[in-house]
Input
Amino acid sequence: MNLILLFKDDFIDGGTRVRLSGRRHKHLRDICRASVGDEFCVGLCDGKIGTGRVTALEEDALEMDVALTTAAPATTPVTLVLALPRPIMLKRILLTVSSMGVKRIFLFHSHRVEKSFWKSPALKKANLKEQLILGLEQARDTVLPKVELRPLFKPFVEDELPGVAQKTLSLVAHPRSSGPCPRYVKRPVTLVVGPEGGFIPYEIEKLTGLGFAPVHLGERILRVEAAVSALLSRLF
Amino acid sequence: MNLILLFKDDFIDGGTRVRLSGRRHKHLRDICRASVGDEFCVGLCDGKIGTGRVTALEEDALEMDVALTTAAPATTPVTLVLALPRPIMLKRILLTVSSMGVKRIFLFHSHRVEKSFWKSPALKKANLKEQLILGLEQARDTVLPKVELRPLFKPFVEDELPGVAQKTLSLVAHPRSSGPCPRYVKRPVTLVVGPEGGFIPYEIEKLTGLGFAPVHLGERILRVEAAVSALLSRLF
Output
């Protein structure tokens, strides 16, 4: 936790003092060994970053005076369109892409996504949010990404994706495709990433039909998690 | 498993028939639902890649006739020098970097590495090898990376690292350092990556004193796992 993410509800006065209990209190007390007077990096969700100085330390809560002065780091200009991964992978990927500055994520169905994944508790709003927050706290960011679930391939790809991809560089990661992933593109990207095992030909045809260029990262086939961070790092 | 990695011991004749039991048999039977006659991508450890055709399928083993025809993908020209991560992270990082073509890895001690990590069973030779093999099977590679353990910072950095880094681009990943990580360098690299929490000033001074240039990936602080794949993807 390189930043303590604060929410409006944490403030106990007009806007400078917060009271934290639960996970953040426990982290500051047990991992950071906070004492009264110590300062930590804090940020207001969807707002600015600054410093929190501990003013009171109790058994089950602590209070801080906060000064928020600096803007959050720049957003990575990408919409990530990801075939729903296995729940255990999903959690790590959400944390990772949140830490890498992705702010808009679609999780969509594809042929090789197991139907049972859509019933996972990992997709509950609170659980998605938890991973996104962990990513912001890791990266020292405050802007919460938005995750949208699209459990049907065809209506999503036909009716919604063209609008999402409009005026962006549209890429679909596809091992053994003809083009290498471009580097340092300096423009907004819509990046589609398939499931473990890849897209089926029908899906790739649909996507290329919409103007998505298939790109690869070399001869090697990476796990989705490594592929996503490698793609983002290469593109931006 | 995009490739079944074979070892010399698997061969039951001069060099074309293998007999597999255990994990690989189970994977081919349960996940791939292999039948006699089916073909799979196989590769000989440290050797060529080709096809294995199932010739016999038994309760606890299967046999394949293999033809090895193609060279393994090119090695990523990097020596990764990594402060020993938390054991659970180490396993995933080894799999990831093995899948990304890294062939030489040093795990070394640094101030913020918990001493207990050095006693983890994850560091046993067989356990390290297991993750490296999973990475090769993921990426369709055959060349097993070498992992070397260096539990003392100073003698490693002073006596051994200068030789390792000789004639390579020497970089140390360090958030908030002055230079951005270079892109697509087209030459061998020695890449030093610190622990969660980063190097202490003494360590960074030691490394820069040896000619390692501190580089960052932007304002954001990534987890070591995401940072390593992002760094490799940007450099090569």
